[in-house]
Amino acid sequence: MKIAFLFRSAPQGKSFAREGLDALLAATAFCDEEEIGVFFIDDGVLNLLNDQQPERLLQKDFIRTFKLLDLYGIEQRFICWESLEKFSIVEDNLIISAQKIDRTLLLAKLNQAEKLLTF
């Protein structure tokens, strides 16, 4: 994998996650889908929750845009299993599917990437 996108910030409060998603989708124009990996850890797993209501916080709803990862063919998607447990999130509550792996394996995969972008 050439580029790894690491989402570790919650979707509300700051624009890191939205900017990361924009950068990820832009990168698909320049890279093959197998060259891109997407990782969710810590508060970043909150970006994948269904039924969010950001408009109640006067924020734009960008979460549904994560569904475009399927359309763009990005299959290297990983979620930290421990982070899901921390927030008591079950797979049925996620907006996209991703491989659940432990933190150690997730960090090992990140170290294999040529470039790491953290949001």
TrEMBL record:
<dbReference type="InterPro" id="IPR003787">
    <property type="entry name" value="Sulphur_relay_DsrE/F-like"/>
</dbReference>
<dbReference type="GO" id="GO:0016740">
    <property type="term" value="F:transferase activity"/>
</dbReference>
<dbReference type="Pfam" id="PF02635">
    <property type="entry name" value="DsrE"/>
</dbReference>
<protein>
    <submittedName>
        <fullName>Sulfurtransferase TusC</fullName>
    </submittedName>
</protein>
<keyword id="KW-0808">Transferase</keyword>
<dbReference type="InterPro" id="IPR017462">
    <property type="entry name" value="Sulphur_relay_TusC/DsrF"/>
</dbReference>
<dbReference type="InterPro" id="IPR027396">
    <property type="entry name" value="DsrEFH-like"/>
</dbReference>
<comment type="similarity">
    <text>Belongs to the DsrF/TusC family.</text>
</comment>
